[in-house]
Design brief:
- The complex is a heterodimer of chains A (402) and B (234).
- With 402 residues, chain A is α+β, with helices and mostly antiparallel strands.
- In chain A, 57% of the residues lie in helices and 17% in strands.
- Chain A has a six-stranded mixed β-barrel.
- The two termini of chain A are 29 Å apart.
- Chain B has 234 residues and is of the alpha/beta class.
- In chain B, helix 3 crosses helix 4.
- Chains A and B meet through helix 1, helix 10, helix 11 and helix 13 of A and helix 2, strand 6 and helix 3 of B.
Chain lengths: 402, 234
């Protein structure tokens, strides 16, 4: 009986193709827009995550001071020293490396050329932790690190700006009154997720930086790379314990340092995406409401127009329930058609948009299923009132109508 | 006639429409009995109550007062769905305007009542074909009403009315929209269904010529039965 009713509904939709299509437009546009936006949004957010991953994978960033709001938050916090780094490296398990960094913006000079770069003192773990690739040359040796030798590795921007494509290895660069020999150059990494040029960088052994450039032994940041993403919270807690102990912070007192997890930043961005998705959902709800009202409207017209037909059906023995089912099924079939067309159009738009915006095309089957279900539901909700009206018609009145 | 209660019996049936000052009396206390196998023509001027009587016999309408029994069952006490079941199982309708579904083939139109009865598809097809053959429309099964003449459309409507094997065929001016030759053909078909299949026929008509096919003629005037006469068996 249900299948008969579906077939009946289909044939009555076929009998009014143009009107049916126009009725569907609301749902088509609603569903299409949602599918396109959500699919594109997925693509965009996966691209953002990919960009963030470029900063370094599974990375914990340790900084002195508590992040507090308002002025004067973290100025007098003690910075770290090499023993802190050594302690972290010894105590922590499940890590790929611990890299201390101290850095400063300085002019790097070669011959008559100079360029503003981030001069960074660090150790050889830095390359691993921040996912740098050495394109040529070599990283710092143990001896160079221990001695704080005057050697450096430069980023792709410096190679381009100061050496104009020539081989920089073996050349000497001047930074203030200090000069160092280039022993390696890094592959380009591109802009950071925050828009700065990560490749305008000059890296030298931490001790050399301290002695020749900073004039102190402070370490501004310690980056820890964790092997397994799932392990991050444990490593974070452990690192906190180690540092509290080293800095002699009594229980109950607050940390005077901060450990931030890059995945936390990712989570923040994910929640931003969730808010956007929620907004999209609201827009979708509105457009489906409009679409639903369209369906209700056209079904009411259809009931009025087919009063006679309904009269015939009632006269030959259709039950109220059967007429109700027929019109309800018709509304649902109509809405489902709209949903299907909308899904197809939405995916098509998303595919085109993804190509234009250079983001991956991520079709989410759950979103598609949801859109489908919601369009069916729209049909049921907005089809019910007209269907009930049809079922309650008086057959005599209905038959008398021309 | 036959055993059991009469097919239809009216006792003091009235029917009013509207209310207050605009109250219209369509039937003013009608007594009437229709037995199984009869062929009855109902005549009378417009507004005489004959259509109202037809609607009540067809279980589409209910009396305002009085008793209307179908096969001995007091229809007044039945729900709308129960009356729909009565129509579905015992009554076939033929209307002046044919009332076929547009853009729907003849066979689909004829199958419609069977769909509501939940008859399986194969049996439905067979019975619909049989009914269409009976009314002389073999070869036109796939035609839609738009592709059929008025006479042919009325034959489809008759096939639809009898496909369920009803006890009672109600025909409301079945020849009203047809020329005289088609009218005669349709009347012969109805008379044949009455004679050969024993289907009780109640027919409203304006034309005495058509009423002549019936065995009994009831004349309504002003909500009353003015005359009720049987033709002498030929």
């Amino acid at each position: 009986m249900l299948w008969e009713t579906v077939k009946l509904a289909m044939s009555s939709i076929r009998r009014n193709v143009l009107r049916s299509v126009l009725t569907l437009l609301g749902i088509v546009i609603g569903v299409g827009a949602v599918i396109a936006m959500v699919t594109l949004g997925n693509g965009a957010s996966s691209k953002v995550q990919e960009n963030l991953a470029k900063l370094g994978s599974n990375m914990l960033i340790v900084r002195p001071g508590q992040t507090t709001f308002g002025p004067g938050g973290s100025t007098d916090a003690r910075s770290f020293d090499e023993r802190d780094v050594a302690a972290l490296k010894n105590e922590l398990s499940g890590i790929r490396g611990v890299a201390p960094t101290a850095q400063k913006q300085m002019k790097v000079v070669f011959g008559a050329l100079n360029y503003d770069a981030t001069v960074t003192g660090t150790n050889s773990d830095w390359f691993t932790v921040q996912d740098w690739v050495l394109e040529d040359g070599q990283p710092f040796s143990e001896t160079e690190l221990r001695a704080g030798s005057s050697v450096c590795v430069i980023g792709a921007t410096l190679t381009r700006e100061l050496f104009a494509g020539q081989d920089p290895i073996g050349e000497r660069l001047r930074i203030g009154s200090f000069s160092c020999e280039v022993i390696g150059r890094l592959a380009a990494k591109g802009q950071s997720a925050f828009g700065s040029d990560q490749d305008a960088v000059l890296v030298l052994p931490l001790r050399g930086y301290h002695r020749r450039i900073a004039g102190n032994t402070r370490i501004g940041t310690i980056s820890i790379s964790v092997t397994e993403a799932a392990d991050i919270p444990r490593v974070q807690r452990h690192a906190e314990d180690v540092l509290r102990e080293r800095r002699r912070i009594v229980p109950g007192e607050e940390d005077d340092f901060t450990i931030r997890d890059l995945t936390q930043i990712l989570a923040t961005m994910a929640s931003t995406t969730a808010i956007l998705t929620g907004l999209l959902g609201a827009v979708a709800a509105v457009s489906l409401l409009v679409g639903g009202i369209g369906i209700m409207n056209i079904m009411l017209v259809s009931v009025t127009e087919r009063t006679r037909e309904i009269g015939i059906r009632l006269a030959i023995g259709a039950l109220e329930r059967q007429v109700l089912t027929q019109f309800l099924v018709e509304a649902v079939v109509l809405a489902l058609f709209g949903g299907l067309i909308g899904i197809a159009i939405g995916l098509g738009l998303a595919a085109a948009g993804a190509a234009v915006m250079d983001v991956p095309f991520n079709a989410d089957i759950r979103v598609i299923a949801l859109a489908f279900a919601v369009s069916a539901l729209t049909g049921v909700i907005f089809g019910f009132f007209p269907a009930r009206r049809a079922a309650r018609l008086d057959p005599i009145e209905a038959l008398r109508r021309e | 006639m036959s055993d059991g209660p009469p097919l239809v019996s009216f006792a003091g049936v009235t029917r009013f429409y509207g209310e207050g000052g605009g109250l219209v009396r369509a039937l003013a206390g009608v007594d009437l009995t229709i037995g199984k196998g009869e062929f009855i023509a109902i005549m009378g001027p417009s507004g005489s109550g004959k259509s109202t009587a037809m609607n009540i016999i067809g279980c589409l309408d209910r009396p305002s007062s009085g008793s209307f029994k179908f096969l001995g069952v007091e229809v007044n006490q039945l729900s709308q769905d129960q009356r729909a079941l009565l129509r579905r199982n015992f009554i076939g309708f033929v209307f002046q305007g044919f009332n076929l579904l547009n853009r729907t083939t003849a066979i689909e139109n004829v199958e419609l009542p069977l769909i509501y009865r939940g008859t399986p598809k194969r049996e439905r097809r067979e019975r619909a074909l049989e009914a269409l053959h009976l009314v002389g429309l073999q070869g036109r099964e796939r035609h839609t009403p738009g592709e059929l003449s008025g006479g042919q459309q009325q034959r489809v409507a008759i096939a639809r009315a009898i496909v369920t094997g009803p006890l009672l065929l109600l025909a409301d001016e079945p020849t009203g929209n047809l020329d005289s030759q088609r009218s005669h053909e349709i009347m012969e078909l109805i008379a044949r269904l009455n004679g050969e299949r024993g289907i009780t026929v109640v027919m409203v008509t304006h034309e005495p010529e058509m009423a002549d096919f019936a065995h009994r003629t009831i004349r309504f005037v002003d909500g009353h039965i003015a005359s009720d006469g049987r033709k002498q068996a030929a």
